[in-house]
Specification:
This protein is of the alpha/beta class. Helix content is 37%, strand content 21%. Strand 9, helix 7 and strand 10 form a beta-alpha-beta unit. Bound molecules: 2-succinylbenzoate and magnesium ion.
């Protein structure tokens, strides 16, 4: 049995070691929404909302997520008695559209809270089967092919098991073919974050000849039909990211032939319950999945590590160690990668296995708001 008694929302700002550019925008400082969930019985859990500062990946931002968590998610969850965190999701889909990242921050936090209450690892609670996960890196768009080659080469040296290169018109064929020539055997892939249309078929077919593991989300962020047209013309598997917002969209992808691989970001699909549903459907239908990233702090990274320990995660995840992004992460210990390109799960510890650095978080906090059962009694926002 599990009850959420209060949640403290806070925004912290973390400076990225170097700006991260994707086709739709650049991030230099990561504004991060953190949640501290409290069961009122001595157990707390920290979770992270992966929404960004601007709606250039999905519609959500950290401002919309704050509002949605306070006014729509928490009134449905706080003070309720749950047999299992698996029961939280059903309360968040009925008469409540969208806002998946806001939903996920609370839904995933409830899994972590339950794992900590039971004193077991989050991976065990989710049904994870691995003690270590394979790590890939996502390299933002660089100004020249030479810059890209320097970074990719350093990442291969460090042991990363997959190199994902962000691409867009003007930074694609020349950049990636140069890498392929330099590293004929390297596990390379590209991610376009919707930078192309079917009118770019020539470019997309040139990418198809570079022996890539996959091409991630080349076309529109909410499209499945045009991706099917494209997939029929490419040998390289298409991996969908933005377009997969639920298990139903995976069913559509399979039916239409829009892609052959799914990037699961639990924030994008609304939490762990829908992530597990997608994982299981893909496992049954022979579709590999892997865990994407959203430039998370060590808090969110811990959730991705746990999820990636499920059996059908068949490619290395975008789960870089803390030091790739942050001078100093907000968790102890920080997430580190071994020279063989894996991250060890912290199975012996409860939950994600890390603790937050409260002092550091306090010093980085820009604003905070505590919401409890009393808050909602007072303002009568509870819908039922
Ligand atoms: O499309 O996978 C993406 C970061 C922000 C927004 C979208 C994406 C990404 C990444 C980063 O690729 C992966 C990471 O967190 O290491
Ligand atoms: Mg992506």
């Amino acid at each position: 049995m599990l009850t959420l008694q209060s949640v403290t929302l806070r925004e912290v700002s973390l400076h990225l070691k170097e700006p991260f550019r994707i086709s739709s925008g650049v991030t230099s400082d990561r504004r991060i929404l953190l949640l501290e969930l409290d069961d009122g019985e001595g157990t707390t859990a920290w979770s992270e909302c992966v929404a960004g500062e601007y709606p250039n990946y999905s519609c959500e931002t950290i401002e919309t997520a704050w509002l949605a968590i306070r006014d729509y998610v928490l009134p449905r969850v706080i003070g309720k008695v749950f047999d299992s965190p698996a029961d939280v999701w059903s309360l968040l889909v009925r008469d409540f559209r969208g806002h998946n990242m806001a939903k996920a921050a609370v839904e995933m936090g409830m899994w972590e809270l339950e794992a900590r209450r039971q004193g077991i690892s989050l991976s065990d609670l989710l049904g994870g089967v691995r003690d270590q996960i394979e790590v890939g890196v996502s390299i933002g768009i660089q100004s020249t092919p030479e810059e890209l080659a320097i970074r990719a080469s350093a990442c291969l040296q460090e042991g990363y098991r997959k190199i994902k290169v962000k691409v867009m018109p003007g930074a694609d064929i020349e950049f990636v073919s140069g890498l392929r020539e330099q590293f004929p055997e390297a596990p390379l892939m590209v991610d376009a974050n919707n930078a192309y249309t079917l009118a770019d078929m020539e470019t997309l077919q040139a990418l198809d000849n570079l022996d890539l593991l996959m091409i991630e989300q080349p076309l529109a962020w909410d499209d499945l039909v045009q991706h099917a047209t494209l997939q029929a013309r490419l040998n390289t598997p298409i991996c969908l990211d933005e377009s997969i917002t639920s298990v139903d969209r995976v069913r559509d992808m399979i039916e239409l032939g829009s892609g052959k691989i799914v990037n699961i970001k639990p924030g994008r699909v609304g939490g762990f319950s829908p992530s597990i549903a997608i994982h299981d459907l893909c496992e049954q239908t022979g579709i590999p999945v892997w865990c994407g990233g959203m430039l998370e702090s060590g808090v969110g990274r811990g959730y991705n590590v746990a999820l990636a320990s499920l059996p059908n995660f068949r490619f290395p995840g975008d789960i870089s160690p803390s030091s790739r992004y942050w001078q100093r992460d907000i968790v102890t210990p920080e997430w580190s990668m071994r020279p063989d390109g894996t991250i060890q799960l912290r199975r012996g510890e409860p939950g994600t296995g890390i603790e937050v650095d409260r002092e550091l978080i306090d010093s980085l906090t820009v604003k905070s708001e505590k919401l409890s059962t009393e808050t909602y009694l007072r303002i009568r926002r509870n819908p039922d």
